[in-house]
Amino acid sequence: MKLNRRTLLASGASAATLATLGLPVRAQTEPLKVGFIYVGPIGDGGWTFQHDLGRLAVEEHFGDAVETIYQESVPEGADAERAITQMVLAGADLIFTTSFGFMDATANVAAQFPDVKFEHATGYKTADNLAVYDARFYEGRAVIGHIAGKMTKTNKIGYIGSFPIPEVIQGINSSFIHARKANPDVEMVVIWAYTWFDPAKEADAAQAMIEQGVDVILQHTDSTAPQAAAQAAGNVFTFGQASDMEAFKPVPRISSIIDNWAPYYIGRVQAAIDGTWATHSFWGGIADGEVLIGEITEAVPAEVKAEAEALRDQIAAGTYHPFTGPLNKQDGTPWLAEGQTATDEELRGLNFYVEGIAGEIPA
Amino acid sequence: MIVLEKRPNPSRAWAFATPVLAVIATMIAGGLLFAALGKDPVLAIRTIFWDPLFGDFASYTRPQLLIKAGPLILIAVGLSFGFRAGIWNIGAEGQYILGALTGAAVGLAFYPTESRLVFPLMVAAGALGGIAWALIPALLKIRFGTNEILVSLMLVYVATNLLAYAALGPLQNPEGMGFPGSRNLSQWLAAANLELFPGTGIHWGVIAAGLAVIVAHVLLARHVFGFAVRLAGQSPRAAAFAGVSPSRLVLACMAMSGGLAGAAGLFEVTGPAGQISIDFNVGYGFTAIIVAFLGRLHPVGILLAGLLMALTYIGGEMAQLQLSLPAAAIQLFQGMLLFFLLAMDVLTQFRLRWKGAPVVPAPAAAAAPQEAS
């Protein structure tokens, strides 16, 4: 028999939950309550810090028309679903869940509360009341990849990977392609840290790279530990990640790739207030102001700085796509023909290195 | 000046009073901390301890308490036997991960079969996975005399790397678009560990935790194994004379704690967590150590301590959300609880005396054997 006791109870349970909880009835004049679920502490100086700046920008822009609430350091998994549900019960009308690992939890809660609007960062599951949004970080990686290729003296650059997911693989490929264009002799070392934020592991990874002769480090992890390791080593350059990391200017941090969520958050809150909010799958880049290139310091020669800024402006203007053929996959098979650009769909599922990168993607 | 004087026998009254006193002291110190952060301390304490049980949304938060307490109690009961016998398994977190991995792997091998046998098979596999992982430090201790604290702890880090490997490799969801993580087990009915009674939060893991408390109580109070464990903890020499084999005791205690931790991992991965992911483990294996000691290594005490710990988690989240308290303040608050418990523990072993007052030693009491308690 297919319909066993568990099925029956499961469906009964969700119905009961909905019936007993209900939703707080609110008058039209009350401010819109906007909630944020963060994976790290707001003081991480990176990913969560930048999302929280977006929240503060919403507060400043709308004043009394909105009220924001947040919960930091929410573990991905079982606890996330409870945290999001409690935020709904606390009266939130619009909730942003700002980490990939909150995907299933957000989808589950969204299904239970059709009157609340949800937005999930970097995932792919959508519903009528669940939108997804992401940033084209690979556009910024192209610019800093170019600088890295020009600045290395040992011709060895390093990339601290977080998790081998498409977003990170896009970043590695984009950095490498543009570093190679700037300097045909460049090699790239990739170390996987398996964390978004762990100063000790990130410092170890940076140290291991420096010992292998790497003199420019790119990172896809959020702490400043690699910057500190580079500073201690001397003669090693780094780039700020997620936030500007301006404390390490002018060296080792010679530029940065900044996540700027404020324009998106303000736009979506406005849509919710206007009643025009609808689900979508949004992927903004340099042109949308979602990805910014931080100040390129005086340690970078003026001509390299000018090239990097030109590259940034071309991407913003839409005249250049960082993944433009001819490009081969790592095994030498053709990927993009001359002049062909990668589709968003290909990029969202990217799971291979381009030709020239050594090593394997762990799987 | 106050001096500490060792009690001839640990005080039974203080043994019961100290956990309560520790909670009260935590409330006071925590209240001061919240006041220093500019929050209303009474409101904060009420939000943490009262609202999850009787607040506006108690119909949602009460079941959540059981979901959170279930794995803590299950793991802590297992650990308490070893801790009583002086066998220190600090690696329950790793055994929890391995239980989830082996159980999920066995289940996924049958995907998408709809058979009632899949879930029990997964539970068995999960428990065996936990046992196997716990037996590594046990066998190394018996054979080579290694320290089980270090070995079991270090195996946690091995386990987290195995978890990352499994989430990205063999157990990765083939329909997951290349993202890490397994199929969602809670959405596959044959493997799902769902709520058994609507609106209660009770799933198979909570039932297992309740059963573990009862069985542990019977074992400790009535069974020769419980006697051996207690004797070994109080006097290893006496235990040896009584015919308790230290090696067997190590194996039994480690297997027991590993098996329960593994089962807890399986119940979690098939239920509340839903899938194997890189961040599947959230520290239940370590928190359970606190729960075990907070509960005085007694099954009923552990039951209460697990519920209390869950209360501080759920209430802490509510305080974060409603009062904008920083997450670190909540963690500090939970840390205080253990700190005060250990500090108050002194009172069961020692008594406070004013130095200068004539202290008349009681030779008869001082000479009484410690084992008599």
UniProtKB/TrEMBL annotation, chain A:
The entry's keywords: Signal
UniProt xrefs under InterPro entries: ABC-Purine-Binding, Peripla_BP_I, PnrA-like, TAT_signal
SUPFAM superfamilies, sorted: Periplasmic binding protein-like I
A GO term from the CC aspect: plasma membrane
Limits of the ABC transporter substrate-binding protein PnrA-like domain: 33-312
One Pfam family hit: Bmp
Name the record gives this protein: BMP family ABC transporter substrate-binding protein
Species lineage: Bacteria, Pseudomonadati, Pseudomonadota, Alphaproteobacteria, Rhodobacterales
UniProtKB/TrEMBL annotation, chain B:
Subcellular location: Cell membrane
A Pfam entry, by short name: BPD_transp_2
GO MF term (any one): transmembrane transporter activity
This protein's GO CC annotations: plasma membrane
Keywords: Cell membrane, Membrane, Transmembrane, Transmembrane helix
Membrane topology, as annotated: Multi-pass membrane protein
Domain of life assignment: Bacteria
Spans traversing the lipid bilayer: 12-37, 65-83, 95-111, 117-140, 149-168, 202-228, 249-267, 328-347
Primary location group: membrane
Protein name: ABC transporter permease
Organism listed in the record: Rubellimicrobium roseum
Phylogenetic lineage: Bacteria, Pseudomonadati, Pseudomonadota, Alphaproteobacteria, Rhodobacterales
